[in-house]
Specification:
The protein has 1241 residues and is of the alpha+beta class. It has 19 helices and 54 strands. This is Calcium-activated chloride channel regulator 1-like.
Length: 1241
């Protein structure tokens, strides 16, 4: 199924690429695309506007839903991957993806040019090969077999095995022989592909291979991305298992052919017949005909539920139903199954009144006799959908999409008639269900859960008091309706309508509102241009209702027809309403100029019925972008909640809204928590572009068992591998841990950001010969992005039915087979290091996994080193050398909470042979091990002495994509001495007494050293200026000789004096305890002709206390010479005891793993007191820093090449990071930066 976005250009050929790809798939694997259904958006109007001649036959969609299409054709402008198609691949090997996204630019500029687009073929290959590659990723769950730029896990190229030459590389692609392409950067200029010996990764991140069909015609895997590739790797073509490709890591070294062959598509291969020809069917979204199937029984109509259903249907039909919708009404239960209202227009007021009258007057017979079942109601619904006797105008056969909506207790006999099921299938009727469990069903579910848990807990054992009690029968799973609904493409929503004082809750009414609207518009393209998306919702209880404040953000992509609604309930029509119209005010965003700033009661409508439900509703056609605020007060406290919600429609057809797509890893009708875990996924995107750095929370609300509490779980997009496959792809996921009851649970996902999120987009490539990066390595590159405004979304997935739960946990026992630590899939090299002694080390990093999948904290890591790669993959437990504590710099890493970064430095033995291979497993508190991580290969080590620029690539030329400033500092040589011989590390073990002695001796020495240091520091701090008078006379004499000699504690600069150790001398002002302000030379005359332009100065105003009139004021001016390159920074204005105290604070901050404080002065303080804080090491009035900035002041954030960087806006106050880039932490802990910092000193 192919669905087209509303923003896509009409004149795009959508069939040529699919036909050619189908033929190629048939030639390669013996299967083809037999039938393709193309769904046309309703906004495209008639087929004459978009179809090519001859015009195809267009039908109304039946089971097809726009948001569940296999292929989505989206607008290609600013796509993250350029014109490349890409699959939304959210799960592991062999699992089908969510969608295959094809940018319309791929069809316009690439595929439509055919054989004339030679430069496009050189970049990517033939169009159908490109499509087939991404189709294999989506359909068969394989991964790419090549590297990616800026990827530490799957690099573009590697050092050749056995070579220490950084220029000797080999590409990370699956091919039969070495490939030697050109290398260019994003500007199209040639660059050198070299290896950074400090980490074994590409030195120039922007230097990428550019292939050519003629020059690089090698036999390669279709997943390698080479333009000449035509087949998949695997038998009979060789597959390279040693390459660090994503396919090898995720599929455990299996070839793509082996994975593809296991798909059901290849169980019966049609090797004859139509020879790969594809049949295309065009359907266009049409109006809906909806049959309501409502259960009428004493149980389902309890607690005045009749009025609650009546209220929701009344609101839906009069305010939210599409104007061209037709409806029918069918009942079943204690009444005979019949068509209460034949098919008619929902826009007709008489039809709406007929629905109200029927529900109010429906007779419910006494007793529990059931006259008709849901199966009878579904048969009547089939008849009602096809009955047009009440329709006066002509109805075309395929002019409507047929839907059924069930409202009842959700019970459907498991021996459901196959004939009825078949009729729904062939007519393509979608069924949705709104279920509110009856007391009998809820009690049965609770008892079933109890018996299920007790049967597993007892496990056939007897108690200490007599024989064992008989085991209760296993619970009966009443999920037949859920199964049937899912098979028709529909969804189920279970409503929690637990009564409060025999009255239906307002929460249940709000859920019914949302369900009716969602079922009507879900699955259609209207979500992109003409349907409400919920922004936020909040419930107020008890005392909270006295002062209700509801704030929400309207963002630019969703700022049309804002709707704000308050829903409440009163216990009787004779009582005053809970909230008075006078107590509700809606405030528009502060600072906006268009529209009103305050909305009062005259701007909304008030609706009330005899069901004692009320709501207030604001409708604002063109709301301002920003934060809105609603304030309301309740006149009395109620047990019922008051619900406030906000929703809006997309702004324009051209700009896609930020949307959220939610799904789960198991079928919604059969969720088993025994064999495998449940994963919730939420894709946040703007069209085809991912939205990153947002807060995504999944809420699990139990419905069948009211004793279970609601769970809130934050979803992650960290690319750790289990469950999140790719970082920054906009797909947030998490395992759900803690569901304990069988039955239905409702899932709601809330997305929110305060403005720190961003929409990723593709960077502009000036040279057409340079290809865009394909999707996806370990992460999506943030080459360019657009910051978002604050926004929020709230999406209801519906309900899922849990059929099996994990048994009660005993001490040290695994609850379920899936309760194992998650596998680490992002193990990578942080840096390499060598030393004078000849042995160095490697720093490895990864993302911490949990004790159970991605939850909690694991017990330990098992890290091993191997001489053979196959041993690491297949015999991790039997082979390899486990890394001991003696081989780790510092202490062995203890697992952190899931999702946190981990890093460890491992010392390598002197003269160790290369390559070396590293892998690890995770051990949890149950003693269960995870699968083996990806394998890291160490095949090069850096030279003994390496400059900073060569380590970090800071001195590379712009043509090679390097960034930063070049530096000449060398990394300190750290010698790592092995504690034990390399051949005996795994054999020797220390006795407890020996280990205690080894620990105790260094501790004693450390304590003695600390005591000595404290004594020395105390003596130095006792009187830092011992020779006060002598130093005063010396400094005064030297400072009075010339204006060029500063009187502020600087070093004398005499070119005739030999280089000796400088001595820092404090100024007399500091010795007197005054503020560190420089003074004027004693004999400098003041005159009106004295020019002070462009002369930095400091002025010291002090009142002489010896003057009886207190009127004597002394002004001293000191001319400051220009700073020399070799001079000291203004940090020397401070006395030694202040610097020493600051140094101690820095050391304490490092021990706490915090950012070190920086010495600064309080800005604007007249006393200029010394403070230790983060802003700056410089005085705020320092003439070298506090200069007037010419031109306009830069904003807080600037877009430089579409990537935002923070900009200093505080004048002389600088952030802890000096320069254009953040400081780099080298292996020895040195912060490499061109600016001087007191912390570095």
């Amino acid at each position: 199924m192919v669905a087209l976005a509303t923003s896509v250009t009409h004149s795009v050929d959508r069939t040529a690429v699919l036909r050619n790809a189908s033929l190629e798939l048939f030639r390669a694997r013996g299967v083809y695309l037999a039938e393709v259904t193309v769904v046309i958006p309703r906004s495209w109007e008639s087929k004459g506007n978009w179809a090519r001649q001859p015009l195809p036959r267009v039908e109304a969609p039946s089971w097809q839903q726009w948001d569940r299409a296999d292929i989505l054709i989206e607008r290609g402008e600013e796509s993250v991957f350029g014109e490349n198609p890409f699959a939304v691949q959210y799960a592991g090997c062999g699992v089908q993806g969510r969608h295959l996204v094809v940018p319309d630019t791929f069809l316009r500029s690439y595929a439509a040019n055919g054989e004339h687009a030679a430069n496009w073929f050189d970049k990517y290959g033939k169009p159908h090969h490109v499509f087939l590659r991404e189709w294999a990723v989506y359909r068969y769950g394989v991964f790419k077999e090549h590297g990616f730029p800026r990827d530490p896990v799957y690099p573009l190229y590697l050092p050749r095995s056995g070579s220490q030459d950084p220029n000797d590389i080999e590409l990370n692609v699956c091919a039969d022989r070495p490939v030697r392409p050109e290398f260019r950067n994003g500007n199209g200029m040639s660059c050198n592909a070299t290896i950074n010996l400090m980490n074994g990764l590409p030195l120039d991140h922007d230097c990428i291979p550019v292939y050519s069909v003629q020059h690089d015609a090698v036999e390669a895997s279709l997943m390698s991305g080479l333009p000449s590739a035509t087949h998949f790797c695997g038998s009979p073509r060789p597959h390279d298992q040693t390459l660090p490709t994503k396919h090898n890591v995720m599929c455990n070294q299996r070839s793509t052919t082996e994975v593809i062959e296991q798909h059901p598509d290849f169980h019966q291969r049609p090797r004859s017949g139509l020879l790969g020809r594809t049949r295309f069917i065009f359907v266009q979204e049409k109006a809906q005909v909806l049959a309501f199937v409502i259960q009428i029984t004493g149980a389902t109509m309890q607690h005045n539920r009749r009025n609650y259903i009546l209220r929701a249907l009344n609101q839906f039909l009069r305010s939210e139903a599409p104007s061209d919708m037709q409806i029918a009404l069918v009942t079943y239960g204690t009444v005979a199954s019949e068509i209460a209202l034949r098919r008619a227009s929902a826009n007709d007021e008489s039809v709406r009144n007929a629905v109200d009258a029927f529900l109010l007057n429906a007779d419910i017979e006494s007793g529990n006799s059931i006259n008709s079942t849901l199966e009878d109601g579904l048969r009547s619904a089939l008849e009602a959908l096809n009955d047009t006797s009440e329709i006066t105008e002509r109805v075309p056969p395929n002019g409507f999409t047929k839907r059924v909506m069930i409202i009842g207790d959700g019970h459907l006999d498991q021996h459901f008639d196959d004939i009825v099921r078949h009729n729904f299938d062939i007519q393509g009727i979608r069924v949705d269900a709104i279920i509110f469990p009856s007391p009998e069903a809820a009690a049965a579910a609770s008892a079933s859960t109890t018996s299920f848990a007790s049967s597993h807990a007892s496990d056939g054992l007897t108690s200490g008091k007599g024989p064992s009690s008989p085991r209760r029968p296993m619970p009966k799973r009443d999920n037949t309706l859920d199964t049937f609904v899912a098979q028709t493409g529909g969804r189920t929503v279970a409503v929690d309508d637990t009564p409060i004082d025999t009255s239906i809750t307002v929460t249940a009414l709000q859920e019914l509102y949302d369900s009716l609207y969602t079922f009507t518009y879900a699955g259609t393209s209207a979500a992109q241009y003409d349907s409400f998306s919920q922004i936020e919702q909040k419930e107020f209880y008890g005392k909270e209702q006295n002062e209700m404040v509801f704030e929400f953000d309207v963002d630019p992509t969703l700022n049309a027809e804002l709707r704000v609604r308050l829903v409440g309930h009163d216990y009787g029509s004779d009582r005053p309403w809970t909230v008075s119209p006078k107590d509700i005010l809606l405030f528009a965003p502060i600072g906006h100029t268009n529209g009103k700033k305050l909305y009062s009661p005259k701007d909304y409508k008030y609706v009330s019925t005899n069901a004692q439900f009320w709501y207030y509703e604001f409708k604002i056609p063109d709301p301002a972008v920003g934060r809105w605020r609603l304030e309301a007060k309740a006149r009395k406290d109620t047990k019922q909640p008051i619900i406030v919600s906000s929703a809006a429609k997309p702004a324009t057809d051209d700009d896609e809204p930020i949307s959220v797509d939610v799904w789960i890893s198991q079928p919604s009708y059969n969720v088993s928590l025994r064999e495998e875990g449940l994963i919730v996924y939420a894709k946040v995107s703007k069209g085809s572009r991912p939205v990153v750095d947002v807060n995504v929370v999944a809420k699990i609300i139990p419905v069948s068992d009211q004793t279970e509490t609601q769970m809130c779980i934050e979803l992650k997009d960290n690319g750790a591998g289990d469950p999140d496959m790719t970082k920054d792809d906009g797909v947030y996921s998490r395992y759900i841990e803690g569901i304990k009851s069988i039955g239905r649970h409702r899932l709601v996902v809330e997305v929110k950001t305060e403005g720190n999120a961003a929409v990723l987009r593709g960077a502009t490539v000036p040279d057409d010969s340079v290809p865009h990066t394909a999707c996806c390595g370990s992460a999506v590159m943030r080459t360019a992005l657009n910051a978002t405004r604050p926004f929020a979304r709230r999406v209801s997935f519906g309900s899922f039915f849990v059929t099996r739960v994990a048994r009660e946990q005993r001490d040290g026992e695994v609850r379920a087979p899936w309760s194992i630590p998650g596998r680490i899939a992002d193990l990578h090299v942080v840096y390499l290091q060598s030393s004078h002694g000849g042995h160095g080390g490697v720093s490895l990093g990864w993302t911490a996994t949990g004790n159970v999948r991605d939850h909690g904290r694991a017990a330990a890591y098992i890290l091993k080193r191997f001489d053979n790669r196959n041993d690491a993959v297949t015999q991790f437990d039997e082979r390899g050398q486990e890394i001991s504590q003696w081989e780790v710099e510092g202490s062995a890493p203890l697992p952190k909470e899931a999702g946190n970064p981990e890093q460890v430095f491992i010392k390598l033995a002197n003269g160790i042979s290369l390559p070396q291979y590293f892998a690890l497993k995770v051990n949890n508190t149950y003693g269960v091990l995870s699968a083996v991580s990806n394998i890291v290969t160490i095949s090069v080590l850096p030279p003994v002495t390496t400059t900073t620029s060569s380590i970090w690539g800071l001195g590379s030329s712009p043509g090679q994509g390097g960034s930063g400033v070049s530096g000449g500092a060398t990394v300190g040589d750290s010698s790592f001495t092995d504690q034990l011989p390399s051949d005996r590390r795994g054999d020797l073990r220390l006795l407890p007494g020996q280990l205690a002695l080894i620990i105790a001796v260094p501790l004693v020495l450390l304590v003695l050293g600390v005591c000595i240091l404290i004594v020395i520091v105390a003596k130095r701090r006792r009187d830092p200026l011992l020779d006060k008078d002598k130093k005063v006379s010396t400094n005064d004499k030297s400072n009075a000789t010339s204006l060029n000699a500063l009187n502020n504690g600087t070093l004398p600069k005499d070119p005739n004096v030999a280089n000796t150790t400088p001595v820092l001398t404090p100024s007399p002002v500091l010795k007197e305890g005054l503020s560190p302000v420089t003074t004027m030379a004693p004999h400098l005359p003041l005159s009106s002709s004295m020019t002070l332009d462009h002369v930095p100065m400091t002025i010291d105003h002090s009142i002489s206390m010896s003057d009886p009139m207190n009127m004597s004021v002394t002004m001293s001016i000191n001319q400051v010479p220009p700073q020399q390159p070799g001079g000291l920074s203004p940090v020397n204005h401070w006395p030694a005891e202040v610097l020493l105290e600051h140094y101690n604070r820095v050391q304490e901050a490092k021990q706490r793993n915090e950012l070190p404080p920086v010495l600064s002065l309080q800005p604007g303080h007249p006393d200029e007191s010394v403070h230790s804080s983060n802003p700056s090491v410089y005085n705020t009035i320092d003439p070298f820093r506090h200069r007037h900035q010419s031109g306009n002041t830069a904003p807080a954030c600037q877009i430089n090449g579409a990537v935002q960087h923070p900009v200093n806006t505080h004048g002389g106050i600088y952030s802890p990071y000096y320069g254009n880039v953040a400081p780099i932490v080298t292996p020895t802990g040195v912060h490499v930066n061109s600016s001087r910092n007191i912390t570095h000193v």
